[in-house]
Write a structure and sequence with these properties.
The complex is a heterotrimer of chains A (about 350), B (about 200) and C (about 325).
Chain A (H helix, E strand, L loop, with lengths): L22 H5 L17 E2 L18 H14 L5 E3 L4 H18 L4 E6 L2 E6 L4 E6 L10 H6 L5 E8 L2 E8 L8 H4 L4 H4 L6 H4 L1 H10 L7 E10 L10 H4 L11 H4 E12 L6 E11 H7 L1 H13 L2 H7 L5 H9 L13
Antiparallel strand pairs in A: 1-8, 2-7, 3-4, 4-5, 6-7, 6-10, 8-9, 9-10
Chain B lengths: L22 E7 L3 H10 L2 H5 L1 E6 L9 H5 L5 E5 L2 H14 L4 E7 L1 H13 L7 E5 L5 E5 L5 E5 L3 E3 L6 E9 L4 E6 L17
Parallel strand pairs in B: 1-2, 1-4, 2-3, 4-5, 6-10
Antiparallel strand pairs in B: 6-7, 8-9, 9-10
Chain C lengths: L2 E2 L2 E11 L4 E7 L13 E9 L2 E8 L10 E6 L7 H7 L6 E5 L2 E2 L9 E7 L4 H13 L3 E7 L6 H10 L3 E5 L8 H5 L6 E7 L1 H13 L7 E5 L10 E5 L4 E5 L5 H7 L18 E11 L7 H6 L2 E2 L5 E9 L2
Classes of the chains: A alpha+beta (about 350), B alpha/beta (about 200), C alpha/beta (about 325).
């Protein structure tokens, strides 16, 4: 049973943030580097339960669940209209998403969540957040807000709904209080190719075309997952284009001495689902933040691998992920955990 | 350091007759008139007879092709003093038009972008519209920080009239907003601005 | 919901003879639970075993996408077919258990359409059923034009007419004027979409009429009755990943032969339309007989890609990446 930490603060909420990972939280991470060298690939696999860590449930929750929901509520209140948006014709997909999250959470974590259905009358209990609501499925007037906003305020990670249209996928709705340098309002309505425009290499490698073809064939009941990653200074969840003036200056603070404390690996677990009624595709991004220092302390083999990955990473990817200014500092700091021997994940 | 080298500029076409169409709506602005003239010249007499032209004389560069357009033998020509007036008329025409109509747009990026919003409202798809960018390279830019739109931006770095921040224009375009994205140019180190070169395509 | 090897177990709770050729099957979860939700235009694959043989036939769901307490499918008996529909008609009784795959949608609605026009013939009406339910609930504008071969084939059309009234136009051969597809498509507002499901001649008619009226392909949607599987000359094929060579007999497809030999090949429509089973050709000596609607002409000529669900080969050696 997941034990939730008392409400912590992230770096975008308080200068003296309290966010920390336990050893258990780190060892259950979906570590994104399968090899010592990293390049984009079609790293997609069937999203079936695996092990006891982050891949056990359909939508993972961990010790930060309550903190993250609290962070979401605060972020939405601070900037109304910036972090949640849905185009009008996405209502059906919103209900699909609500159903999928409620069914998954109550099945995978019955100690925390309960869903009782009686026809279209649904009873939802969320114990960690002390929510106990009854509503009519399909009738938005019986919820205090739109179904997507309602359920994703109770979920970890961000959620993007893509609509299939004209042989592509179009961004139709999103709850994104933890996005990595993009603007939800700006990207809304963009096609798959358009919203991937900023990502380097993908076009040249032909990956986008293949990925789109693959996603258009995604079918209900057969989700797939992939991981992605980035680097963030301080445990800051909210790093949108809108608030760039708040977070970008921190990139200048990193030195070889403080990199362990300041630099966080930002892991993204993305379980993609075709939704049954709307035929929309759900693109969730479950974000995990871990400081280099904590990673090295509890998972030294991963720190060793990360040293190699960052050291040898293609410069275009470094620029895109935004750590050009402090890549060398990171590499220097991580090098103390790399003795040159092969990585052996069973040894941590 | 901040991402600027984004490759998601809108891709434009060259106007040419769409042979499958039965009726042709051709809307242009300023220097876009040249592409309209060339398109009509490339058309068959029958296509010309089924073509309606909408032209706005609003121009950033001062180009005006009205005289030459008046001499064309087409179904009709309507002239507008502003892009906004043209786009409102276009929206009305599209709303009443039948399947089989093709839309051609030529002019500034900003003009094409806002005209496309009208086309999207009636569910015109990519195979029913051609867009040719012409003349000036000015852009419409949306500020990510204060939600202000600035028309006719000519340089990579400019000051947002809404929040007074120096913005860098990313080559990242939103069709829904019909605008490029502007973000704080000296986001990492105050005063450390990227080169303010003229924008080009 | 029971899932076993990716299939759902469902109980046949009702069988209705609707026309001389069409039976409608109502399917429920054996424990009375709700079945997975689906969208208008979806189909399920029914997996049927007869002795050594396994049939996998796709049928459109005709029940409401908003009521997942039961599924309904309509099955037209095809005596000349390879047997799946005959088996369902003759052997399956109320109370029987069937294995089906979870619904998938290869014929979705264009959600932004300003007007939806459906043209259907005979049993081609089945995918339209669930689409109309969806549109009715959304209060979208739609029309259905359905042609049938005679008064004894009107049951489904009359059922829909009772539900949607004047939006449904029924054309009974010998009783009324023929369906004028060009007239149906004429003078429609921008943003109209047409969906056609029926015999090839009806699809071709619709495509020709729409093109003549200046419609572009993105507004035209069609689903052919795909005769699943394929028949033709036998051939041998080497499955490179398995390191085996198998024989594909005259009455089976490569996909079916591989499954029968115990190899799992990913698939969805089994009719050469969805692209799910696309595989790479590693070696070929001879000609490939491409029968799918998925690969581009370029891919077909290139001899590098192959659709095991329908395509065949006339060659001395064929190695595929399966």
């Amino acid at each position: 049973m997941t034990v939730f930490k008392p409400i912590e603060t992230y770096a975008d909420q308080a200068p003296d943030h309290t966010y920390q990972n336990s050893r258990e939280a780190i060892l259950r991470l979906p570590f994104p580097y399968p090899e010592d060298h990293y390049m984009y690939s079609m790293n997609v696999e069937p999203h079936v339960p695996f092990g006891t860590g982050a891949l056990r449930g359909q939508f993972d929750i961990d010790e930060h669940y309550v903190s993250e929901c609290h962070h979401r509520a605060q972020t939405l209140a601070a900037q109304p209209g910036v972090h949640y948006a849905a185009l009008p014709h996405m209502m059906e997909a919103q209900w699909d998403l609500l159903e999928l999250l409620m069914e998954s959470y109550s099945r995978d974590y019955p100690e925390h969540f309960t869903l009782e259905k009686s026809g279209t009358q649904w009873h939802w209990i969320n114990r960690p957040l002390q929510i106990d609501d009854t509503f009519t499925f399909g009738d938005a007037s019986t919820l205090p807000m739109e179904p997507m906003e309602y359920i994703t305020r109770q979920a970890q990670g961000e959620f993007i709904l893509l609509e299939e249209r004209d042989d592509t996928l179009v961004m139709g709705a999103g709850m994104a209080t933890q996005r990595a340098d993009y603007s939800l309002r700006f990207n809304l309505g963009m096609s798959f190719m358009e919203f991937h425009g900023p990502v380097p290499k993908l076009h040249e490698m032909g990956i986008l075309q293949r990925a789109l073809k693959f996603l258009l064939r995604l079918r209900p009941g057969h989700p797939v997952r992939r991981t992605n990653w980035s680097i963030t200074v301080n445990p800051r969840l909210e790093t949108s284009a809108e608030t760039l003036p708040d977070w970008a200056p921190e990139r200048t603070l990193v030195t070889a001495e403080n990199a362990g404390d300041l630099v966080n690996l930002r892991i993204e677990l993305q379980p993609l689902h075709r939704l049954p009624r709307s035929n929309a595709v759900l693109f969730p991004v479950r974000t995990y933040l871990v400081s280099l220092k904590q990673l090295a302390e509890f998972a030294p083999q991963w720190a060793k691998r990360m040293h190699r990955v960052i050291r040898d990473l293609d410069q275009e990817l470094v620029d895109y992920k935004g750590f050009t200014r402090y890549r060398d500092a990171m590499v220097t700091w991580l090098s103390q955990y790399d003795d040159g021997t092969p990585v052996d994940e069973s040894q941590q | 350091m901040l991402i600027t080298g984004i490759k998601s500029r809108p891709v434009y076409d060259r106007l040419q007759p769409m042979t499958g169409g039965l009726r042709h709506l051709i809307a242009g602005q300023g220097s876009g008139g040249a592409a309209m003239l060339r398109l009509i010249a490339d058309m068959s007499p029958s296509q010309r007879q089924h073509s309606t032209l909408l032209y706005s004389t609003e121009s950033f560069s001062g180009h005006d092709h009205l005289q030459a357009l008046r001499e064309l033998k087409v179904a009709g020509l309507e002239v507008f003093p502003s892009n906004q007036a043209l786009i409102e008329a276009l929206a009305r025409k599209l709303n009443e038009a039948h399947m089989g109509t093709r839309l051609y747009l030529s002019g500034s990026e900003s003009f094409i972008g806002t005209a496309m919003q009208a086309a999207n409202a009636v569910d015109l798809n990519r195979d029913e519209v051609l867009r040719e960018h012409s003349g000036t390279l000015v852009r419409r830019v949306w500020c990510a920080h204060c939600d202000t739109y600035t028309e006719n931006v000519t340089h990579r770095v400019f000051t947002c009239p809404g929040c007074q921040l120096d913005l860098v224009v990313r080559d990242h375009y939103s069709r829904r907003l019909a605008a490029f994205q502007g973000i704080k140019a000296d986001g990492e180190v105050p005063g450390e601005l990227p080169a303010a070169e003229e924008l080009d395509t | 919901m029971n899932t076993h090897n990716g299939t759902l177990s469902v109980r046949v709770t009702r069988i209705e003879q609707l026309t001389p050729e069409i039976k409608r099957f109502t399917l429920n979860d054996p424990q009375g639970k709700h079945l997975p939700a689906f969208s208008g235009g979806s189909h399920v694959v029914v997996v049927l075993e007869e002795g050594e043989k396994t049939y996998r036939n796709a049928y459109s769901l005709m029940s409401s996408p908003y009521d997942s307490s039961a599924y309904q499918i309509a099955v037209r008996r095809v005596d000349t077919g390879r047997g799946g529909s005959r088996l369902l008609h003759d052997q399956v009784r109320e109370g029987a258990l069937l294995q089906i795959l979870q619904p998938a949608n290869l014929f979705p609605l264009a959600k932004h359409a300003r007007q939806h026009l459906f043209i259907a013939g005979g049993v081609g009406i089945t995918p339209v059923y669930s689409q109309l339910e969806e549109l009715q609930l959304k209060q979208a504008t739609f029309e259905l034009h359905l042609a049938v071969r005679g008064p004894e084939h009107t049951a489904l059309g009359l059922e829909l007419k009772a539900r949607y009234g004047e939006k449904v136009h029924l054309y009974v051969q010998g009783q009324a004027a023929r369906m004028d597809i060009r007239g149906i498509l004429a003078a429609r507002p921008l943003g109209s979409h047409v969906y056609v499901c029926g015999p090839d001649s009806m699809i071709d008619d619709t495509l020709d009429s729409a093109h003549a009226l200046g419609w572009t392909d993105s507004h035209i949607h069609y689903e052919r009755f795909v005769e699943q599987g394929s028949t033709g000359q036998p051939f041998s094929v080497t499955l490179a990943r398995q390191g085996v060579t198998i024989e594909v007999p005259a009455e089976q497809s490569l996909l079916e032969a591989a499954e029968q030999a115990g190899y799992q090949v990913p698939y969805l429509c089994r009719g050469g339309a969805c692209g799910y089973c696309e595989t790479e050709v590693l070696e070929v000596e001879g000609e490939l007989d491409h029968r799918d609607d998925w690969l581009s002409e370029e891919d077909k000529l290139g001899k590098r890609k192959f659709m095991p669900c329908v395509s065949r080969a006339n060659c001395s050696r064929l190695v595929v990446d399966l």
